[in-house]
């Protein structure tokens, strides 16, 4: 059965202007991510993968080209509409966890629901359930600095799930964790993919972590390739001649 | 939802306690000044109006010396009144009667304690006693009125009897006034006016103990029913000018009709008000700038958090609201403390006025004032935070997250 793409990029360019020079972070990137897919975006630092994640996450708009969400072009949307999409349809998991330090685990998980106008009663119920699922039942009223890195990342995953989004966008989710904890977080993410049927887009430079994904998008020098051979070729070429600079 | 924004805003303030407290000071001082100013001036206005109601609006008080008012206690004034002045006032059309006491500060000794008390020496002729009673100059809590035969007797004011000495003075007690033995024959009822802190003695006794043979300190003219006190006051002025042979505008006496007094007191009140409003305005301005500064710092410090919130679905308007609530809350907290301090100062000032002048200044806490001051301080805080909040709301999510 053919699944329909939930996110599609069509010839996307992103150009940054720095004083006199223009830097093309993305040069005509096109790909589609289907519903329920687990996709990794791989590439060396400076390859443009962060820029790509920002576009896919509706945090930024392309200079040229189209970013389609469910077939609708978001490139022309206003910030408030983008915010609503981020709040309802996309859950972010960051490398540095990015929890609000003054709020407890519970409050951090409830935050996106406040912005999404969920009732207080429903917020508390959902947040408690999610934290319980993450094995953090006894950590609900702890602040981030009272928790370990792995626990903080699990709070962040609970937060990403709070508005029950279709897409989870994870940016180096294990980057700040030791390998054991990282593996545990990856198991959770796999669980979201296989059991909860979330579309997972994960940015990483780590080939082991990337190997959890069913589909890989490799990005080098602002351009994209799908298969492993292409990656090898680009990386080899890059390593010897270009130094991976954008 | 508003409740949630308030809670988040409060957490924002609570995390930087010291800085928040410092920021509050400006608003605090401003609101303190405004609240104490408004309540005090209202209380003063009420007290003054009350004084006239109690003393009667059918009286005109004439004091020696130009441009001054209030009972002349000392002998500071160079101009003096004598019987001929009293007679001149008595002759004016519309004047029902005249009361001309000698007023001095006396040393009063009671059970070994010595206090300085203002003494009004009244004539104790039968006619005057009737006049005092008829016009309510003396209403007694205990004891009796003066009799024509009285000489070394005193009627004490309420405060004199109850507060001035360690032990309460009762009618029948012996006291010494300027070394002379006196008997207390009565205690005045509490009136909430300067009469509470003044005692009455017969004029003859006063002339003897103060060694003052002819002078009277001030003249109270009682206006007949149906006459306008202001108009009669003008006539008294004219008559006294003639009697004392002075030109208009160079009077060595002052005729205080209740209305004229009210006007001059109101004028002083207005000047005090203007000065306080100035202080309050400057302090509020500085307080507002302080809040703005704190909020700019807060936005800069929390750029990353703003990015996180935007990534999790916060719209620009949500961020704007969050920071506006935060600065509004800063203002509001300053306002709460300012309100408390303002009322505190007003009540204290009222007490001081009561002790010093015997004037009852009752400070009223009104809902209008409380709500007005709190709303004002919240709005002030929110307005001061407008520009920082706008800056926060307009941060690009990607830029903010990069911090």
Uncertain runs of chain A are 239-246
**Order of SSEs of chain B, N→C?**
HHEHEEEHEEHEEEHEHEHHHHHH
The number of distinct β-strands of chain B equals 11
- Estimate the mean pLDDT confidence of chain A: 87
Q: Oligomeric state of the chains?
A: heterodimer
- Any idea what the radius of gyration of chain B is? 31 Å
List keywords for this structure.
heterodimer; A: 246 residues; alpha/beta; Rossmann fold; 8 helices; globular; disordered C terminus; B: 403 residues; alpha+beta; 2 domains; 7-stranded mixed beta sheet; 13 helices; elongated
Task: Describe the structure concisely.
The complex is a heterodimer of chains A (246) and B (403). With 246 residues, chain A is of the alpha/beta class. Chain A has helices spanning 49-56, 79-89, 105-115, 120-133, 149-161, 179-194, 207-210, 228-242; strands at 5-18, 21-34, 38-42, 64-69, 72-73, 90-93, 167-171, 199-204, 215-220, 223-225.
Walk me through this protein's architecture.
The complex is a heterodimer of chains A (246) and B (403). The longest helix of chain A has 16 residues, at 179-194. Helix content of chain A is 37%, strand content 26%. In chain A, helix 4 crosses helix 5 and helix 5 (149-161) packs parallel to helix 6. Chain A has helices at residues 49-56, 79-89, 105-115, 120-133, 149-161, 179-194, 207-210, 228-242, and strands at 5-18, 21-34, 38-42, 64-69, 72-73, 90-93, 167-171, 199-204, 215-220, 223-225. Chain A starts with a strand and ends with a helix. Chain A has a single domain (5-242), classed as Rossmann fold (3-Layer(aba) Sandwich). Chain A is of the alpha/beta class and 246 residues long. Chain A contains 8 helices and 10 strands. Chain B is an alpha+beta fold and 403 residues long. Chain B folds into 2 domains: 2-52 and 263-402, no CATH class; 58-257, no CATH class. In chain B, the strands form 2 sheets. In chain B, strands 3, 4, 5, 6, 7, 8 and 9 form a 7-stranded mixed β-sheet that branches. Chain B has a 4-stranded antiparallel β-sheet with strand order 2-10-1-11, with helices on both faces. In chain B, strand 3 (102-110) and strand 4 form a beta hairpin. Mean pLDDT of chain B is 84; it is low at 68-76. Chain A binds chain B through residues 54, 57, 59-60, 79-80, 83-84, 86-88, 92, 94, 98-100, 102-103, 111-112, 114-117, 120, 159, 163, and chain B through 1, 3-5, 8, 11-12, 14-15, 304-305, 308-318, 396-398, 401.
